[in-house]
Design goal:
By secondary structure, this protein is of the alpha/beta class. The protein is built from 17 helices and ten strands. It has an eight-stranded mixed sheet with strand order 3-2-1-4-5-8-9-10, sandwiched between helices. Strands 6-7 form a two-stranded antiparallel sheet. Strand 2, helix 2 and strand 3 form a beta-alpha-beta unit.
Length: 339
């Protein structure tokens, strides 16, 4: 039996406790300060406020002030916080991370670096504070479905033995885990699928605005998005074939089925200029992960070379989406020109 500590009791942190606890492991779910009320509710026997299910048997709950106890003696520590939360939580647990056999991250996004002058994949941030092997998690995974044990296919990316160890701990008949050593491909896809989901959401907005389906439009954008994520992964040392599977194509498919990234795209497709649509959602307190990922990914892509040609990396759909969201370019025309 392994001891698995999950840092973050939000949607996915809570959800992923389901498969690992089903395997009989000692699971510790620690709540950050913003999760304090969730931990109190679960301890009182209530259900998670967004997942609608109670904590599973075998999951022990830890409040924000019980951080040291939550990590002590853990075999696996899994980061399940937002991308902006990774760096501060890593710093908080830095001393403890030195002694953890394997570290996992299910967070999706980029980090601007300690001085804001670099763009890092999230495992790179964790690696600043530990030499332990790091395993990234990617693939189509709606938290509410994972929490309920609905069949889910996922990918764990990292060094062979570490990734297999984690897969053995989490894999169940319903939670199907594939393993790859391409953590770069997994992480790039996990972050960038949120950005490209905005572009595909535009097709839904166009349908709402015109009353005419734009399925062909969406279908043309989808493979272009997967191709560009693959090219970005390759430029960073990953593999396009990883992106073409569950972490990229699969996760993009489930992301455009609903959610905030698609919502932003819908508003733009319905006629709202990109900058105003993004601002309106921010003012409403709605965080759109793809918006930040787009900015980081665009900046990163412009700094890279295409390994196949040695020329500057060209990602036309990413450029078009950036123009729509940051420069107010007409959405349908800009995105279609990138196909």
């Amino acid at each position: 039996m392994a001891t698995v500590t999950i840092l973050g009791a939000g949607d996915m942190g809570f959800a992923i406790s389901t498969p690992v606890s089903a395997n009989g492991h000692d699971v510790r779910l620690w709540g950050t300060p913003i999760d304090a009320e969730i931990i109190e509710t679960l301890r009182a026997g209530g259900v998670h406020p967004r997942m609608g299910t109670a904590v599973r048997p075998g999951v022990r709950l830890f409040s924000p002030d019980e951080a040291a106890a939550a990590v002590e003696g853990a075999d696996i520590v899994l980061f399940a916080v937002t991308s902006v939360g990774i760096r501060p939580i890593v710093e908080q647990f830095a001393a403890k991370l030195l002694h953890v056999p394997v570290i996992m991250t299910i967070a999706k996004g980029f980090d601007p670096g300690p001085d804001g002058d670099a763009i890092l994949l999230l495992p790179e941030v964790i690696a600043e504070r530990t030499s332990s092997p790091i395993v990234g998690v990617g693939g189509p995974s709606k938290a509410n479905e994972v929490a309920r044990g609905i069949p889910t296919g996922i990918v764990f990316g990292g060094p062979g033995e570490a990734a297999e160890f984690c897969a053995d701990a989490f894999r169940t008949p319903a939670y199907n885990v594939e393993v790859t050593d391409d953590i770069v491909g997994v992480e790039v896809a996990a972050a960038m699928k949120n950005a490209y989901a905005i572009a595909l959401g535009v097709s839904d907005g166009l349908e709402k605005a015109t009353g005419v389906p734009h399925h062909n439009f969406r279908a043309a954008l989808f493979p272009r998005a997967v191709q560009e994520m693959g090219k970005l992964a390759e430029a960073l040392g990953g593999r396009a074939e990883t992106v073409a599977g569950r972490p990229g194509a699969g996760d993009l498919q489930v992301t455009i089925s609903s959610g905030r990234n698609r919502l932003l795209g819908e508003r733009i497709g319905a006629g709202e200029p990109g900058p105003q649509a993004a601002a309106a959602l921010r003012e409403a307190g709605i965080t759109v992960e793809g918006y930040d990922a787009l900015g980081f990914g665009h900046r990163l892509a412009r700094s890279l070379e295409d390994p196949a040609t040695g020329h500057p990396l060209r990602l036309p759909l990413l450029e078009a989406l950036y123009a729509v969201l940051h420069e107010g370019a007409p959405a349908a025309e800009a995105l279609w020109s990138a196909v």
